[in-house]
Design a protein that fits this description.
The complex is a heterodimer of chains A (397) and B (384). With 397 residues, chain A is an alpha/beta fold. Chain A has twelve helices and 15 strands. The relative contact order of chain A is 0.14. In chain B, α1 packs across α13, α2 crosses α12 and α5 packs antiparallel against α6. The chains are: A alpha/beta (397), B mainly alpha (384). At the A-B interface, β7, α7 and α8 of A face α1, β1, α12, β4 and α13 of B.
Chain lengths: 397, 384
């Protein structure tokens, strides 16, 4: 749902943002770990300045707000229990308005003006990709809480993430469909103008057929579409036992509703793009009983999760979403690394982050691997009565 | 064999139903082109407004979640443009200028309370309509249809009077660019006021709605059993009735005759005593009424989910449908709409579903290359 002109402008900006990214990737690959000559920023005062850049306004404002709440809660708790190396953490928040160009300038300001030693952000992969090269070239470690696109951490050795990556999510859904739901024939319905959705579909197909399943129908839609009956009628004729719709909540709701109107009764499956209460605005009750993979479940019977949920409820009221949990984990992993680091400068924090092992976060036990990605489990949620209910946890293979 | 025939027929019905929605919008493009020889690019957004009006009647004005501040800013900008436009010509007279500045200043200063009063009035009026709509699906559906038709028809006339009439003598290119401006205003102004989140409503949520449109209609054609969604059938039937009513008005009434006369030769019609301003306004009235009806029918009965940019793609495709049928030709617009809908649905149901939007533009290019006047259009040499 983007007006063509805006979309074009966005694409151009993304291209420009990626140009320096390519250069830096090459440089970092040659330099190995260590981080070249620079030391990044060094803590000099009584507080540790940490930067965060998020979309606090614009169409993704809810993502930014949620992440910031989780992040602030973590900072409160860390500072409340004595801070890091006797110093309190001070967050410098910049609003990038969901605009890749503004994300890049926000991070530049954080690093050169506010002298932050590390950066947390963004949610959308396109924004993380715009800012990551700047962190990389300044030797300031960046931890993205929820950018799942594989390319983000490939920017360089200073870029980390605490969420899982897209291929893993597709594996999780394929495994759940095959092992738990006993589905043999599945259909795939992807959004063809979203890299997230298309890659999800591809990876699902690969994993599901390896497990012995069959893909009986494949179809695609565009993000601006409102009519899905042609594709759904074709999918219906192929008689699948489940349909993978790895899109965003906006389209998925309408797809579910039209599928039910056409008499398709099999469950729909999806990923974390479904995670928004707004999905019920368009879906109504059409998604009852459907499943999707996500980062965290608020009703998960895990003491770490429950402690986080009650702390969040106490501070903000209401239940935390997955993005708040990831913001919380990102800050805690960063603080944990700073505690273990030899000194509070870029390369030392980077090295400590890279050695994160079995960190007990609210989104699962996290180990940072050699590609600076998080190895962790995912949860499967079911939609029941307009709520997301925890079904099971699927481990990293 | 039986199964593939069934799939074919099912897709054909999907396509014709989608095409009937395109046709309802396309007739508006074609009629305006007929009388004014320009493309009203804001027409697709009138369709979007129809969808929103249906939402308000069926689920209540609370679903609007209006951003009051954005509404004040948008209205203030419209006023400012109106003010600047009004400065042309006789704006040099200092007394009149001062009066204008004071007038606009007063309206601007009172804009906040004015918007509040307007919203309060809208909420009260919509509250009554929604309460009536909640009685039964039949009352609700007809009431919403009527509200959408009337509101969008008036909006169409307002757009014509406010944006197109003042520049009518300035040439077609000016009008075209103004139309794009009005379109952007409706899309982005709408997004500022109502937000970017998608909305959805369904007539099935009204009492009795589940029985009327939720269930499928089972048809038996020889050995083939078809199960057709009733919501789709209602859209199709309603579209046929509306187009028939339009054809009756254009062919049989005095205003319709005047409209055809203006389309044939505006100046000659004026010389014969036809009030061309009224006829042009009436053309916008009719076209916008059908677009509003299309917006309501499509989202209330079969597609459900829309946002403020919904009219962009739908309007573009309906425009292609009008060109395909022969722009300026009513029957051509209907034919073009149905062809577009069927083509799109069959591509969507093929292994090449990614290209279902591309088909509209492939058709447009093919038509422009091989039959520039459209399927039912007549190629005429333009007299200079």
């Amino acid at each position: 749902m983007h007006f063509p002109k805006r979309w074009l402008a966005g694409a151009l900006l993304a291209v420009f943002a990626l140009l320096p990214a390519c250069n830096t990737t090459g440089g970092a690959g040659g330099g190995g770990t260590g981080g070249g000559g620079g030391r990044g920023n060094v803590v000099t005062g009584d507080t540790i300045p940490i930067g965060s850049y998020l979309s606090m306004t614009g169409s993704e404002a809810d993502f930014g707000k949620q992440t910031n709440e989780g992040l602030s809660l973590a900072v409160d708790q860390i500072n409340g229990s004595g801070g890091v190396k006797g110093k309190k953490i001070a967050i410098h928040l910049e609003n990038d308005e969901g605009d890749p160009a503004k994300a890049a300038s926000a991070v530049t300001k954080l690093i050169t003006n506010d002298k932050v030693v590390a950066v947390v952000g963004e949610v959308a992969s396109s924004l993380s990709l715009a800012a990551a090269p700047i962190c990389q070239s300044n030797h300031v470690p960046m931890v993205t809480p929820s950018s799942t696109n594989v390319k983000v951490t490939q920017v360089g050795d200073y870029i980390f993430r605490v969420c899982f990556i897209d291929p893993f999510q597709a594996y999780v859904v394929a495994k759940f469909a095959h092992d738990n739901l006993k589905v043999n024939n599945a259909a795939i319905f992807v959004q063809n103008d979203s890299a997230y959705s298309k890659d999800f579909g591809e990876e699902f197909k690969k994993n599901f057929t390896q497990m012995g399943g069959t893909i009986v129908a494949e179809a695609a839609y565009a993000g601006t579409d409102t009519d899905f009956k042609g594709q759904l009628t074709k999918i219906q004729a192929a008689r699948p036992e489940a349909i993978l719709v790895p899109g965003y909540y906006k389209s998925v709701g309408a797809i579910a509703k039209q599928a039910r109107e056409l008499g398709i009764t099999v469950p729909l499956l999806g990923g974390d793009g479904w995670d928004s209460q707004d999905i019920f605005v368009t879906a109504g009750n059409a998604l009852e009983g459907c499943y999707f993979s996500d980062h965290m479940a608020v009703d998960q019977p895990d003491p770490t999760v429950q402690a986080f949920v009650s702390a969040y409820q106490k501070k903000y009221g209401g239940k935390p979403g997955a993005l708040a949990a990831l913001g919380y984990d990102a800050m805690n992993i960063l603080a944990d690394a700073m505690k273990r680091a030899d000194s509070l400068d870029g390369p030392a924090i980077r090295d400590a982050l890279a050695h994160t092992q079995n960190f007990k976060g609210v989104t699962g036990t996290i180990t940072i691997n050699s590609e600076r990605n998080a190895e962790k489990p995912a949860v499967i949620l079911q939609i029941r009565g307009r709520e997301f209910k925890y079904v099971t946890t699927i481990q990293h293979p | 064999m039986g199964q593939s025939l069934q799939l074919f027929l099912q897709q054909l019905i999907n396509g014709i139903e989608l095409g009937s929605v395109y046709a309802l919008i396309a007739v508006g493009y074609t009629m305006v082109y007929g009388v004014l020889k320009f493309i009203n690019f804001a027409h697709g957004d009138v369709y979007m407004v129809g969808a929103f009006m249906g939402l308000f009647v069926v689920t209540g004005f609370a679903a609007a979640s209006v951003d009051r501040q954005a509404m004040v800013i948008v209205l203030a900008m419209i006023l400012l443009v109106t003010f600047l436009v009004s400065l042309r010509g006789h704006g040099r007279d200092p007394k009149r200028l001062a009066a204008r500045i004071v007038g606009f200043g007063l309206i601007l200063a009172l804009l906040g309370p004015l918007v509040n009063a307007l919203l309060a009035f809208g909420t009260r009026m919509m509250g009554g309509l929604t309460a009536a709509a909640q009685r039964s699906v039949l009352t609700g559906g007809l009431l919403a249809l009527l509200v959408c038709i009337v509101w969008c028809a008036l909006l169409g006339v307002l757009i014509e009077r406010a944006a197109y009439k003042p520049i009518r003598s300035a040439g077609r290119l000016t009008a075209l660019i103004t139309a794009i401006g009005v379109s952007l205003l409706l899309e982005n102004g709408g997004q500022a006021v109502f937000g970017a989140n998608p909305r959805a409503y369904s007539l099935a949520t009204l009492p009795g709605g589940q029985q009327l449109i939720g269930a499928s209609l089972n048809l038996h054609l020889g050995s083939v059993a078809l199960s057709v969604n009733r919501g789709q059938m209602i859209v199709l039937v309603a579209a046929i009735v509306l187009v028939a009513a339009l054809l009756y008005i254009v062919q049989k009434t005095r205003l319709g005759k005047a409209m055809r006369a203006v389309a044939f030769d505006r100046e000659a019609a004026a010389l014969m005593g036809i009030n061309t301003d009224t006829v042009i306004a009436f053309t916008f009235f009719l076209g916008s009424a059908l677009a509003g009806a299309a917006g309501f029918l499509n989202y209330g009965l079969t597609q459900f989910s829309f946002d403020t940019l919904t009219g962009v793609m739908f309007g573009l495709k309906a425009f292609v449908a009008a060109v395909l049928g022969g722009i300026g030709n009513l029957g051509g617009a209907v034919l073009g709409g149905v062809i577009m809908g069927v083509a799109e649905t069959f591509v969507a149901g093929s292994p090449f579903s990614s290209y279902k939007d591309a088909i509209a533009f492939v058709i447009l290019i093919a038509i422009l290359l091989f039959r520039p006047a459209g399927l039912l259009g007549r190629f005429t040499v333009e007299k200079v």
